[in-house]
Amino acid sequence: MQKLKLGIPKGSLEAATIELFGQAGWDITQRVRNYFPTIDDAEIACALVRSQEMGPYVASGALDAGLTGVDWLLETEAKVEKVCDLVYSKASDAPARWVLVVDRDSPIQAVEDLEGKRISTELVGFTRRYLKERGIDAEVEFSWGATEAKVVGGMADAAVEITETGNTIRAHGLRIVCDLLHTHTVLVANTDALADPWKKTKIDQVALLLTSALAARQKVLLKMNVPAKALDDVVGLLPSLHAPTVSALADKDWRALETVVDRFEVRNLIPKLRARGAEGILELELKRMC
What we know:
It contains ten helices and 16 strands. It is of the alpha/beta class. The strands form four sheets. The chain has a five-stranded mixed sheet, sandwiched between helices. The chain is globular and about 80 Å long.
């Protein structure tokens, strides 16, 4: 049987990725001290690989496809094909940011002020290229971790660090000068794998179901009963992909209505729907939306 060799990001994205696969229909089971989790699909073989290494492994053909961040693809300059964007992270469904960080009282106010300074980061290659493109001569050192502490302790003048909210950075008494890069997860594939009809079909299946699972997180299904005489008013309130589905009920004076709406619109919609006579309003979670 043919198998797709699929890389799952180990580390900060690991739990969020396994949860996303679960929503998409695949059960991935982790095993203690094992880098090859099981998956309930005989056509897929999973391997846990750090995001930093995913691009090179996919580019070399050691993996057919994998999930990693745009940031690490830029860092490694791996020659892979992007299959689809998957905007989620360890704490939210939003892009993360690589930011320039300095001590709260530092005189550094802009990237140009880094001339002659020492910068600590895990994203060394990207940061060096970023500064070179702007004509800034600074020393960029690789950080093995605790990057913010190097700025606090005076071991570096600045750091380039990843964040989602900036709260941890500020809590350490640091200040964000500017954003250098916005990043998110992507599904990438090996060029030869995409040229293989069977592997491409499998990769496309994974891409479709993961993107549909993410899309469903932003939507809910609303179902309700509406007086026939108020139907036009209620329909006018409801955004939908095309048009709400309207069905007849045993009582000819009422209609059943259902539609998909943005999750964050519901709190404003329900009071308006009730005011126009809608009853039995149900809000249902969606697993996938293609």
